[in-house]
Amino acid sequence: MSKQIIAVLLASLVLSACGSTSQRKVETRSAPAPIENRSVGVAATTAAVVEAPVGGGYLSGDGPGANAPTDIETIPDAVPRNEPLHRYANRPYVALGKTYTPQKTAGNFRERGIASWYGKKFHGQRTSSGEVYDMYGMTAAHPTLPIPSYVRVTNVANDKSVVVRVNDRGPFLHERVIDLSYTAAHKLGIVGAGSAEVTIESLSASEHLATAPVKKSAPVESRPLASSEPVTEAQPAKIITTTRGSNIYLQLGAFKSTQAAESFMAKMRSELGSVDKELSLFVKDGLTRVHIGPYKTQDAARSSAVEMQDKLGFKPMVNLH
């Protein structure tokens, strides 16, 4: 066979291969963050082919878990508290050839764009913060917001709003501005579509306590209950319906759902450790409130609230039954 014939056959094979290869985009969900001078697998360092979302996230094989909680609507929003910035996750980094410089302060950032979500494909993997990604928590990934920090995300189409804790990096393609956990996306009504136009507002702890709206199933003046954290088994809840002795208490949170209040009370019991006051539930105006007390005077209650602030990340409010 002559060299000319061989060259023609090789050229035909190359053209045939090129014609049969589909044009597919490749997505990297997140950029790895160095911890202790070593790379940590972030909740999305794996490259995957992007497909049209069908009832779930942007990546092939992603989507809702098989055993999603039945009470997902009662999972409380994250509540901003003062946290130190992660030592490494806020350094400048490069993803897909672009350099990103994370911000160092929260509470002065607004953005509008497309939000997506990530689920079972990354559930249990490490995020940029080094924490394990929990698709049933109230978290999010953002390219430049501080880690950790908190944002209010609002679905432009239906005006539903959630507060999430940013603990991961991404997304980096398709002009998306934030990746939400499955629970956050579910509460915003964007799970089926896979994405939606949203507004993002960065929150500081003080701003949230002053302006946070009271929403169904969301805690009021409480800190987040992350489903990835161990929760101390709740003791039988004491529902206060009458007043005996002092009526001065500190309120740690208020919930539409009694189940959410009981779970939060168990978390508070674990956070506070040994205390000489009783944690209890008090139902009023359709809300189940988590209280601690009673205290002899309002001054004693306020002093205790100041002491609790460092442990809880927020200052409980005085409440009179």
Could you provide a short overview of the structure?
The chain is of the alpha+beta class and 321 residues long. 19% of the residues lie in helices and 27% in strands.
Question: Could you please describe the fold and organization of this structure?
Answer:
- This protein has 321 residues and is of the alpha+beta class.
- It is built from five helices and 17 strands.
- The relative contact order is 0.14.
- Mean pLDDT is 73; it is low at 10-56 and 208-244.
List the keywords:
19% helix; Barwin-like endoglucanases; 321 residues; 5-stranded mixed β-sheet; Alpha-Beta Plaits; 6-stranded mixed β-barrel; globular
List the helices and strands and how they pair.
Elements: H1 3-20, E1 26-28, E2 34-35, E3 38-39, E4 47-49, E5 93-95, E6 98-100, E7 110-118, E8 139-141, E9 149-155, E10 161-168, E11 176-181, H2 182-188, E12 195-203, H3 205-211, E13 239-240, E14 248-255, H4 258-272, E15 278-284, E16 287-295, H5 298-312, E17 317-320
Parallel strand pairs: 7-11, 8-10, 13-15
Antiparallel strand pairs: 1-4, 2-3, 5-6, 7-12, 8-11, 9-10, 9-12, 14-16, 14-17, 15-16
